[in-house]
Amino acid sequence: MKLGIIGLPNVGKSTLFNALTRGHAPATNYPFCTIDQNVGVAVVPDERLEKLGQILRPPQLTPTHIDFVDIAGLVKGASHGEGLGNQFLSHIRNVDAVVHVIRCFEDEKVSHVDGTLDPQRDIEVVETELILADLEMVERRLSKTKKLAKAGQAEIKRETALLEQVKEALEGGNPAEKLSLSQEELDCLKDTPLLTIKAQFYVANIDEGSLAEGNDYSRAVAEHAASAGREVVNVSSKLESELIDLSPEEAREFLQSYGVAESSLEKVIKIGYRLLDLITFYTIAGGNEVRAWILKRGQRAPAAAAKVHSDMERGFIKAEVMKFKDLERFGTEHVVREHGLLAIEGKDYVVQDGDVLTIRFHAG
Fold first, then answer.
1. 360: exposed, middle or buried (Cβ count in 10 Å: 0-12, 13-18, 19+)
2. Distance in angstroms (rounded) separating the CA atoms of residues 286 and 116
3. Which of 86, 105, 305, 309 has a 20 to 30 Å separation from 12 between CA atoms?
């Protein structure tokens, strides 16, 4: 999973990026402090993996991870190159979902690109630029497909019709995401990598004193999110940036002192999983490693095997499947087997969240 962090300049994107990835991207008080995209990796906290480590006692436990991309601040006119906008917009096309950070804190030391604090306006500025960028791309693609459609190719005609549908939505000020296109329709639009087709949610970046209950600015974001059908989470990136050098236990205690039960990373991961409809499964590698993996919900066992290695997918024979809840209940792999709860599944098996797999395959 790759999540792109977007927003206006000076809203706390790089500070949030550092908090999420425990990185050290530049985070200073001037627009376009970030010019090139910063890419960082965050380990997914996973209590089930820790429990599997206690039960199976492998020499190695390997968690799954999420890539975060800190994308430079967008401004009004970005779709036409303002503030190096075209370059920044192109970075968004390569992520799976978008984390839109909105400034909800007052600080005289941190300038606002528009001079005043107005979350509703800030959201509209960024989202309008995404819509305008998509509209320009759709119009360019339509000029090509309309010519090709004259040759009578059915696939091109279908793409042209879909592009016209997307164009109408964009011209009405609506993101392409609102069209709820099927996977087949999305595949048909593969030559038009739309920004507004991506799942998006909001992070209201607030001051630490308002973290437990929010403030008027974050409530304005929540109201907008509700009307747009999107999720929102309150985070104090400044506060959480102070956790970078603490142990997980120390960080949790620190947040709890502010009345916060989960870190920004945990909150963002949960929303990302929901929006992208993802699950976590686990593999056992010869008793030497238990590893967590991310998979799209509804995928079958060979797709899970492919996550581990392409050779496993090609030579897939079967998957030995145990459920995490059974391992947790009985405490050992041996007892799970004794109770007949280890299933042998073939290529048609749909992998479930929490499955523990041993994949058998023909090597070579």
1. middle
2. 59
3. 86
Closest CA to 11 of 103, 78, 83: 103
Q: Is the per-residue pLDDT at 37 higher than 70?
A: no
Residue 176: both structure tokens together: 């392409």
d(CA 228, CA 287): 48
Nearest-angstrom CA–CA distance, 330 and 12 = 46
Q: Would you say 269 and 275 are in contact if contact means Cβ atoms under 8 Å apart? A: no
Query: What whole-number distance in Å separates Cα of residue 239 and Cα of residue 220?
Result: 21
Name the DSSP class of 17. H
CB half-sphere exposure, 129, CA atoms < 13 A:
27
The per-residue pLDDT for range 141-179, each reduced to its tens digit, is 999 998 888 777 888 999 999 999 999 999 999 999 999
pLDDT (tens digit per residue) in 40-71? 888 888 999 999 999 999 999 999 988 888 88
Q: Hey, is 356 helix, strand or coil?
A: strand
φ, ψ (nearest 5 deg) of residue 149: -65, -25
| Contact criterion met (CB below 8 Å) for 291 and 285 | yes
Rounded Cα distance, 224 and 204, in Å: 11
